[in-house]
Amino acid sequence: MQLDHINITAPGHLLDELRDFYRDVLGLTEGYRPTFSRPGYWLYAGDRPVVHLIESDTGKIRNGTAALDHIAFRSRGLKAMKSRLEDFGVGYQEFVVGDIRLTQLFVTDPAGTRVEINFPDEG
After folding, report:
1. CATH architecture of 6-57+69-120
2. What is the pTM of this model?
3. How far apart are CA 13 and CA 3, in angstroms?
4. Which of 31, 88, 94, 103 has a CA positioned 20 to 30 A from the CA of residue 60?
């Protein structure tokens, strides 16, 4: 089994800002999305739509006991990503996990979702 995608719901007025964040700041590509009843976007890493954005259904109440803490991407080009985040005015936290030679950047998207970006063997 492998993770296929994440789905983020948000109010309609926030969809474009979320799309821009994942596309322009994190470098995903906006691509094909089938026709659904609610507006949204699919953002791709290579040929896979890994982030689905959809307008929240305000009439639907979601109940649950779990919470999503963050989503994570594996990437390359740590210095370029840090520059990109700074250019867009996106604050980040940087952590180095020395035991496994991994540098992590944590950012928050416009809807409040924490995003971890992992850079193996960089840093």
Report:
1. Roll (3.10)
2. 0.87
3. 28
4. 31
